[in-house]
Amino acid sequence: MLDVTDKIYGAFAEKKDRIKINTTCSCAACQSMGDLDLKAFIHHGEFAFQKSRDTEELAGKDVITLFRLMKNDVVEKTGINAYALITQDAVNKMDVGEFFSKDSYHTATYEHIGEVGYFIKDLKRAWEERRDTRSEERRVGKEGRSRWAP
Fold first, then answer.
1. What per-residue confidence (pLDDT) applies to 148?
2. Residue 108's CB: how many other CB atoms inside 10 A?
């Protein structure tokens, strides 16, 4: 799941960059497109399907918990606009705690739910680091080749 969020953000950021480069429209929506960012939420818990008219919806305490977590103060607390929020329950279930530092851990308390622990991963920073590493590898690869290599 962590790799998937990285790949989704990478595709989003690259598409956003291409659109920004290729757009000459001066309308407010096009001009503010660069401000768009992505947020991903990963949680583990129980849920049920509840039929409502012609559709089925997810229901249960853990679904409510996830919806409450979507209304958070992460940007205000951390200054991170593009992030993955991974609950402690999800981290425990996936056994990926070693990928997170203590300073990325936060909590929120909700009435009828209690305290929920979660980690924040800066998706933009991770993407920029991968992009810069790939660029450096390409640069070094070109310099290290024979001048006769294609």
1. 45
2. 19
